[in-house]
Amino acid sequence: MAEALGYAAAHDGWGPSARYFYSRLYVVQDSLRACPGGELLDVGCGPGMLVRRLLDTRPGDFHITACDQSRAMIKAAADRVAGADDVDLTVARIEDLPFPDESFDVVLAMGVLEYTDAARALRELARVVRPGGLVLVTMLNPHGPYRLFEWGVFWPALRLLGRLERLLHVRTGRRHGAAVSGIRAVAPVRLRRMLREVGLRPEDMVHYDLTPLVPPLDRVARRWARNWRAHPERTVSRGTRRWMGTGYLVAARRLCQ
């Protein structure tokens, strides 16, 4: 349960994690703007942040089914959406969804593909969405300067510092470090190819959480640069600024047979 609470807390405040989640919420809602409603599936819903946002901003438009492989996340989501009539929650893995074929008009997978077998997961998303239905997926951007520096320099430096601190007998709670994440992010070109291979036609792509800064400089800058909450549209790009995105979203349609 502590993990679920920590994940939810990361959406708040003014740090890099909050900015990332806020920017991602914006692009998801923007991508759904033209969708009139229907049956919606949120795969990997976590503690229900996106579900809660849709209930608040699109009341009555969607009947929402949300799933996550973590029971603690589903419990936290249930608490967050308590009293809502149009939400069903269940424990499930994205690689083996317990739903019939062609069950949903919209399928969302936010922050999930990086931590799973993406090819198998996409086949399941394509299976459960209806012909002509909308699929939205996000992915960390492995080619952006932020991720390149974070994964290739910053995290290894923290691990090295932690090992040195251990040799110097620094107390465990005060040591630096970075856990092995298990992230398997793929580039936009490859993800779009994978979508096509399972019968999904990419229609739009937008990079979000734009930042030219790298850790830990971004943490310092976020104390003063706070316009992203008032103007989230400035944190996304489909054009020349997209190289600064720390993540990206692809919108695709299932081909009609």
TrEMBL record:
Keywords: Methyltransferase, Transferase. Gene3D superfamilies: Vaccinia Virus protein VP39 (3.40.50.150). InterPro entries: Methyltransf_11, Methyltransf_Superfamily, SAM-dependent_MTases_sf. This is Methyltransferase type 11. One of its GO terms (molecular function) is S-adenosylmethionine-dependent methyltransferase activity. The keyword Transferase applies. Residues 41-136 form the Methyltransferase type domain. Signal peptide: none annotated. GO terms for biological process: methylation. The keyword GTP-binding does not apply. PANTHER family: METHYLTRANSFERASE, N6-ADENOSINE-METHYLTRANSFERASE TMT1A.
